[in-house]
Write a structure and sequence with these properties.
Elements (H helix, E strand, L loop, with lengths): L17 H4 L15 H6 L25 H8 L4 H10 L12 H10 L1
Length: about 110
């Protein structure tokens, strides 16, 4: 049986929108900010980021895992400041950004 011949038996209108159910924290897509052309420019630094050329798991270690390798890569990255600025502006809560862990970024924000 080919994919085009497959029928699941589920009605086409089976999806229930979580907004209609009143799920907390869920907003309609039209309420979410639409991407602007300048957003693409704001992320252009990512193409030069060294982390994009390495194992992403190093930048998102498990709780208690070492951040040493990721931070070492960040020290020689040309876009480290742009990365950190992005993480602070967008409240990134996980991973190493701009050479700082989540805890270090929180401390930095409190001091600012």
């Amino acid at each position: 049986m080919g994919v085009s011949q497959y029928r699941s038996g589920a009605p086409e209108d089976w999806f229930v929108d979580p907004v209609d159910l009143g799920v907390p924290g869920v907003r309609r897509l039209d309420a979410v900010r639409k991407p602007r052309p300048e957003d693409d420019d704001a992320l252009a630094w990512q193409t030069d980021a060294l982390c994009a050329q390495t194992d992403p798991e190093a930048f998102f270690p498990e709780k208690g895992g070492s951040t040493r390798d990721a931070k070492r890569i960040c020290t020689s990255c040309d876009v480290r400041s742009e990365c950190l600025e992005y993480a602070l502006r967008n409240d990134e809560r996980f991973g190493i950004w701009g050479g700082l862990s989540e805890r270090e970024r929180r401390k930095l924000k409190r001091r600012a």
